[in-house]
Amino acid sequence: MPTVTPSGVCGLKWSPDSQYLASGGNDNRLLVWSQHAPADGGPVLTYEEHVAAVKAIAWSPHQHGLLASGGGTADRCIRFWNTLTGQALRSVDTGSQVCNIAWSIHSNELVSTHGYSQNQILVWRYPSMTQLVKLTGHSYRVLYLAISPDGENIVTGAGDETLRFWNIFTRAKTPKVCFEYQVTDPLF
């Protein structure tokens, strides 16, 4: 079994068809692995354009082979890759560390969460990468992101010990905080 990265894996995401796994590393590399591994057991694609750790990874549910990745504090970019051709498609400087990326299941939009120095949540339209919404409220890095099963709401968690629930991909509504919880006591 080959070593993925000697400096550690910090992001993993399966493609919607379960044929590929993308891994991000502290070595600033994004690797794509196939279920049908090559003879050497290594990745089928290696991208080295990020200049900081790659934690945020998301496969598009709308376009087969489209992969988005986000870099850390020194990088600040969301990058898009065509994994069918191996080509880099574009890069957008977000102005801060990219902690998470997730695609809407209903539209060609994605949400990204950020750390230093903005601590915000951004909603983008792809492929123009027009920023649709900027959500603020967390006072520390927005480290965690989950989309509800219906695809309309997200929950974000940050180092400020809060969870915020947002209506974000609902039709004809302005995104807003639905609930906020202070996380101070362990659950177990």
From TrEMBL:
Repeat positions for WD: 9-34, 135-168
Q: Which Gene3D superfamilies match?
A: YVTN repeat-like/Quinoprotein amine dehydrogenase
Looking at the record's lineage, which domain of life comes first? Eukaryota
Can you cite an annotated GO cellular component? anaphase-promoting complex
- PROSITE patterns assigned to the protein according to its UniProt record, in alphabetical order: WD_REPEATS_1, WD_REPEATS_2, WD_REPEATS_REGION
Record bears the keyword Repeat: yes
Domain (CDC20/Fizzy WD40) ranges: 8-166
Task: Give GO BP annotations, semicolon-separated.
Answer: anaphase-promoting complex-dependent catabolic process; positive regulation of anaphase-promoting complex-dependent catabolic process
- Keyword tags: Cell cycle, Repeat, WD repeat
- One GO molecular-function annotation for this sequence? ubiquitin ligase activator activity
Q: Which family does it belong to?
A: Belongs to the WD repeat CDC20/Fizzy family.
Write the protein's name.
WD_REPEATS_REGION domain-containing protein
